[in-house]
Amino acid sequence: MTKLRLSLPKMVTELPGPKSKALLALRSENVPVGVSYGIPTFIERGEGAMFQDIDGNVFMDFAGGIGVMNIGYSHPEVVEVVKSQAEKFFHTSINVVQYEQYVRLAAKINAISPGDFPKKTMFVNSGAEAVENAVKIARKYTKRSELVTFTGAFHGRTALTMALTSKVKPYKFGFGPFPTGIHRAEFPYAYRRPNGISEENAMAYFIEKLHNFFLEEVNPEEVAAIIIEPVQGEGGFIPVPMAYVKELRRVCDEYGMLLICDEVQSGYCRTGKMFASDYWAEHGVYADIMTSAKSIAGGLPLSAVTARAEIIDAAQAGGIGGTYCGNPISTTAALKVIEIMERDNFADKASKISEVVMARLNKMKNAYEMIGDVRGLGAMIAMEFVTDRETKEPAKDETKAVIQECNKKGLVVLDAGIRGNNLRFLMPLCITDEQLTVALDIIENAVAKVNGIMLESTDESASA
Hints:
CATH class of the largest domain: Alpha Beta
Number of strands: 18
Strand order of the largest sheet: 4-12-11-10-7-5-6
CATH superfamily of the largest domain: Type I PLP-dependent aspartate aminotransferase-like (Major domain)
Shape: globular
Helix content: 25-40%
Structural class: alpha/beta
CATH architecture of the largest domain: 3-Layer(aba) Sandwich
Strand content: 15-25%
Number of domains: 2
Number of helices: 14
């Protein structure tokens, strides 16, 4: 292991540093403002959970390329197989000249994805493309047009996946009109259940809402598929309660709808299992179609659609696929990534990270008033910040302030949630114990500072 892989955050300049300032000026002149960025710096190299920027600052990455770096930056075995493949050929298009990696990877994902039934897998380039193709396949198989999605959902930024996505700003604002045939049910967000509904009665409430939805919004006999994230990503890292998953499966079976599980952000060991829907499988519940992407290939563009064989084979030859889909270098990387994840027990790493982080965050929740909720599954974890625990008023500005404080100390973190008041953690699963402790210290110090400012402001307002 090299020094950077085992290092800790170290800031040698303010943000942005001088070299980053120059590049930001060039970016401003040449890159659209719609392509946003989180932290005002530019990476030079990365290893494990750490990266160094062009100004010499060393950061710990709790964003992980938005869930792409589960295996960490620059895993030497992945780098080696990518180099080897690059020396042979970059591209042929699977639709013209075939190559072994595509077939081997499809077989591997069919084997490791939940469900002991015949499955087939196709590859595309991004999470949004995977969802688009899942919808195409569902409509083709069922010969139905309508789709059900959820409040808080995020499925991509293409026209169709924007329509499936819930959050308006920034993802949908001004980009309409959107494709028709999409109906939005209420996601079982227990923390924000209506006043008067107890935690014990929350699932009964949300399940009744689902039944009413099919009476009031769309006839289930016209629905091709229900699509849901097993843990909402952009929505705030909210796991779907198992009682709700079981009811979705029951309703789908009763009315001939397909269940699509969007594992784009939750897949590949993030949640303590290879896939979050492995937890569903423990209760005998399986999706008909599963999408996966992000950490599948260690940072190279690749996504997958895995489905029951009879469903995915409904698409005619030439009906699915594309020029770059499942390219040789990405599929080569993915085979090695999955091999390493299985061999080195990355799912167990996620579970151990979860134990440490959840214990620390729950302790923080008892100490800092602004932490309204702590939740997650495995190492897919979030804190929700509020200005008042009773009203649950979102603390969006305070969330931004916490992120800025973390950035100053060399920790990259992201927000999440429809209200922009969640802090989400997507640390590489190869993070060391020391790095994890230091990161949690940085987060707690940032929360303590912002919480203190918030309470002072509240006291001043009350006395005015």
